Amino acid sequence: MPRPVWSGAISFGLVTIPIKVLPATENHSISFHQYHLEDMSRVRTRKICDLDGKQLTNAEIGKGFEVSKDTIVAVTDAELDEMPLPTAKAIEIAGFVPYESIDPIRIGEGYYLQADGQVANKPYTLLRKALERNSKAAVAKFAWHGRERLGLLRVQDDVILLHAMKWDDEVRDPKELAPKAMDLDDDEIDRAILLIDSMTTDGIADQEWATDRYTEALERVIEAKAEGKKPPEMEEEEAPAGQVLDLMAALQESVEKAQSARGETGKDATVHEMPKKPKKKTAATTAAKKTAKKTAAKTSAAKKSSAAKKTADKKTAARKPRRTA
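Above: the chain sequence. Below: its structure as tokens.
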């Protein structure tokens, strides 16, 4: 494990738990230096004093705040560490909230909290088990690197984990970015849900796509160039047979690809057109149908009566004797 980045205590009511803070993550990205392309000599950043032009070491450089154009206030690291804040040497738990109530956008880097000494083991374990049983997350305040921060305490395995969090005013309002209201059919939403279901896994661990392919590709490029070889070219993906312009067709094709990638036939994933729902009968509709039936019946009876009358008139006319001159 890496070295502790901070040491202090967790303040939990009247309980104090001495702890050490260690980074929970590590960076595996490849770092580059800057070089002069003409002769490949190293380009370095040097800290130069504006007044005397002297190059300074880190020990000669301190923090300062420009109050006005002619007034600069110097602040030392010791003064920052000794500020009159209750959170300067302690992670002070302010309250407990349901974990799902916290917007993930507010959660930052994670740190492991290690019990500092034998005396801290029992209260540390007590807090961990309490957090596990009530499924709550502790919201805390602490001061690091010259500022007070909001923190989140949660349990991972048998260790308490601390996340730095953003304050309310540090999260931008996304309302201006939301697209205008769109009309979507239920069938379109159903197909999107089916696509999500076809791509759902039990977790991120051990997934083929949960791999940093960029770093792997960069390592191959560096290795090839170091051996005087040509860097490997990117494999061209198979072009689609035709451009899919219809959203429904795109969703269906995506479902089939996801099923195929998981070794499934995809037959169960085929989505047929949703049957139209029968319209609900209302009192007005029923009344209108009855009226229409009655009108049709009267019209039919009238037509039959008119036809019978014409037939009778013809028979009467045929029976009358013809007059002779």
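The first helix runs from residue 77 to 81.
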